Automatic annotation (TrEMBL):
Swiss-Prot/TrEMBL keywords: Membrane, Transmembrane, Transmembrane helix
Record has Membrane as a keyword: yes
The organism's taxonomic lineage, starting at the top: Bacteria, Bacillati, Bacillota, Bacilli, Bacillales
Protein name, as recorded: YesK-like protein
Entry superkingdom: Bacteria
Transmembrane stretches, start-end: 7-27, 39-59, 71-92
Species assigned in the record: Aquibacillus halophilus
Length: 97
């Protein structure tokens, strides 16, 4: 696999994970109207998606250093996603009440 395609897939998966998490929050909050439950479900979904990304990167990385840096970036993106989820839940909650 070429480096350009590998980079696109690596960062594209992060973007897709963020987008899926945000759409999940909006959909589930409209359905359940429970902010706390929706938030924790979205964190679980993000953990699952970023975990799958880490597993994919484990098999894709060519050496140990790129594997560690790749996992670190996925971990940082996961925690930024948690902060993003808090912001989205707050905005969605204010707009519906």
């Amino acid at each position: 696999m070429s480096r350009e395609l590998e980079g696109f897939l690596y960062f594209g998966f992060m973007g897709i994970s963020f987008l899926v998490s945000i759409l999940f929050i909006v959909f589930m909050f409209r359905k359940t109207n429970n902010a706390r439950r929706t938030y924790w479900q979205s964190v679980g979904l993000s953990f699952l998606l970023f975990g799958m990304g880490c597993i994919w990167w484990f098999f894709q990385a060519s050496d140990g250093i790129s594997m560690i840096f790749g996992w670190t970036y996925y971990g940082v993106a996961f925690f930024l996603g948690i902060l993003l989820n808090i912001a989205v839940v707050t905005v969605v909650k204010r707009n519906f009440f």
